[in-house]
Design goal:
The chain is of the alpha+beta class. The protein contains six helices and ten strands, in the order E-H-H-E-H-H-E-E-E-H-H-E-E-E-E-E. The chain has a domain of 128 residues.
């Protein structure tokens, strides 16, 4: 199952990444030595992002900037309040850095992988997430400019933040999931 959050601002995305994945003291991924990340998507290939998701690259991308040159790729829109067409107060959204998305495995998969200790099931979950994201990428759209209709680009940049499916032991029964942040850059 895929669960997607409301859009995250740049500061929300950076805080989430720092708190949950980059800080060894605070995140539960590093406590059990299972915190692994990787870049995925055609834009990751195009921009030569490979291996672990580095905080510096993540921060630049969440601000709409190129991960190596810091060139501004996405024009920031700050939140503002104005009177709408029918006299109602409207507050616009600020720049959306991305969305928190989580792939959750069915309970039977989680039980087989973690309680049964079957590494093949964990690997199958990892590969199914990668396959789903490659398929999703084919339909990716971007709005090039504020007033233009969305265009199909077929390019995504995805920091997969835990490529080893994690078991949530406090859940009854245990459940396996793989989180990622989808970038709108």
């Amino acid at each position: 199952m895929l669960t997607i959050s409301k859009p995250l601002s740049a500061s929300q995305a950076q805080t989430y990444h720092e708190r949950e994945f980059a800080s060894e003291k605070q995140n539960y991924w590093s406590r059990d030595q299972q915190g692994h990340s990787e870049w995925q998507g055609k834009l990751a290939d195009q921009w030569k992002l490979a291996g672990a998701v580095e905080s510096e690259h993540f921060a630049l991308l969440s601000e709409g900037q190129h991960p190596h040159t810091a060139e501004q790729l996405v024009r920031h829109q700050v939140s503002r309040t104005y009177e709408g067409k029918f006299g109602k107060e409207v507050t616009s959204a600020e720049h959306r850095a991305g969305w928190d998305a989580t792939f959750s495995a069915p309970k039977s998969v989680s039980l087989t992988a973690f309680v049964g200790g079957d590494e093949r099931v964990r690997e199958a979950h990892r590969e199914s997430v990668r396959t789903a994201l490659r398929e999703l990428e084919r339909y990716t759209q971007a709005r090039i400019g504020n007033v233009h209709a969305p265009e199909t680009t077929g390019k995504l940049l995805l920091p997969l933040l835990n490529t080893i499916p994690h078991v949530q032991l406090m859940a009854t029964p245990p459940r396996s999931f793989t989180p990622m942040l989808s970038s709108s850059t």
